[in-house]
Design brief:
361 residues; alpha/beta; Rossmann fold; 8-stranded mixed sheet; two-stranded antiparallel sheet; 16 strands
Length: 361
């Protein structure tokens, strides 16, 4: 049986403490990273999670500089094959989708590492047509620009899937299918955009990797319902917060990168209400990176369900006091108050009494 050896490394840049367990899925054994005492995790590491934050340059330069600030951390995660996961909510709306220059910043960085990857996969399963997005946003040009072999992939065409249980709003269980290509890749990099959301308040690097790659028909089930017509907050916010953490056991990216040249506010994750932001960030602790970006957007990280659960489960750090910010840019100096989604107050009612039981399942 195929097995992906992926663990959460607590000592960022210094893998002194690696803890994992395994759980049987539909066709193999995959590692499980939760169900470990948060107290034990905190005692096992001696340093804070490191997140870079830069401001003021162009998109490509900012992304490169964000990675440069955490170079040692990132280099410890790289492999001969690296997957870059952009965000294509739309195949036409650039504001809601990853700009090719953000990927150029990542690729520029990869070429400066001691052992550049032998192959880079640019993999996405867009909300609309993935190949239209690649074409409309100029991604094919990347294949000609770089010496590293690049391969554009539409994960909707994946043929091998692994199933894992998720919960529905009525308390029953169903499954979500994860692409084997992602699970088998030794290094995944989520390239995210700061955006508000209609279920999770914000959509950031963790959610980009998970919701943008799983089987298309299973995405609505992550909301806790079988059809989009049934969806309602706060029930879907409760289900999504649990389900993201269930899948994060297997799909947390190795590196989180944010292109915040512009953010999307208001009734995201789509739309055209853009906000000039001018930042970039990077970390090998995806939860820490998401926490920093959430705060720069004007939201409290530990008030967001998926970040609170991930933090409490020891999957990463979402407490800003436990994060070392690199780059000389303070959160306060770049923070903007993003206009929240109109249902945000309901979305913040994500708490459920049996969360511990649901997360342990």
């Amino acid at each position: 049986m195929t097995q992906r050896e992926t663990t959460i490394t607590l000592m960022l840049g210094h893998p002194k403490c690696v803890l994992s367990e395994t759980r049987l899925l539909s066709s193999g054994v995959l590692p499980l990273h939760h169900e470990i005492s948060p107290t034990l995790l905190k005692e096992a590491t001696m340093s804070k999670s490191r997140v870079s934050l830069v401001h003021g340059g162009d998109r490509r330069t900012n992304v490169f500089n964000a990675l440069e600030l955490v170079r040692a951390d990132v280099e410890s995660r790289l492999a001969e094959q690296v997957m870059l996961k952009p965000n294509f909510l739309s195949s036409e709306n650039q504001l809601a989708s990853s700009h090719a220059d953000a990927l150029r910043g990542v690729l520029d960085f990869l070429l400066t590492t001691p052992k550049p990857p032998r192959e880079v996969l640019i993999a996405e399963a867009g909300a609309q047509d993935t190949w239209d997005a690649y074409r409309n946003f100029g991604y094919h040009a990347l294949e000609e620009e770089y010496s590293i072999p690049l391969r554009l992939m539409d994960l909707h065409r994946e043929t091998e899937w692994e199933s894992t249980p998720i919960v529905l709003a009525d308390g029953s269980e169903t499954i979500a299918r994860m692409p084997r290509t992602v699970l088998d890749c030794p290094c995944t990099i989520s390239i995210a955009i700061p955006k508000t959301h209609d279920t999770c308040v914000v959509t950031l690097a963790l959610k980009n990797m998970i919701m943008g790659t799983i089987y298309r028909q299973d995405r609505v089930k992550m909301h806790g319902f079988n059809t989009h017509a049934e969806r309602r907050v706060p029930d879907e916010s409760r289900a999504m917060s649990i389900n993201l953490i269930r899948l994060a056991r297997f799909m947390t990216p190795d590196v989180a990168v944010f292109d915040g040249a512009r953010g999307l506010q208001g009734n995201g994750p789509g739309g055209t209400d853009g906000l000039d932001f001018g930042i970039a960030a990077a970390s090998i602790d995806t939860f820490a990176a998401d926490a920093v970006i959430a705060k720069t957007m004007g939201f409290e990280p530990l008030e967001l369900g998926f970040l609170r659960y991930g933090h409490d489960q020891g999957m990463g750090t979402a407490d800003l006091d436990e994060i070392e910010l690199l780059g000389g840019v303070s959160i306060a100096s770049v923070a903007r108050q993003f206009k929240p989604h109109e249902t945000t107050e309901l979305q913040l009612q994500w708490q459920v009494e049996n969360a511990e039981q649901l997360l342990a399942a």
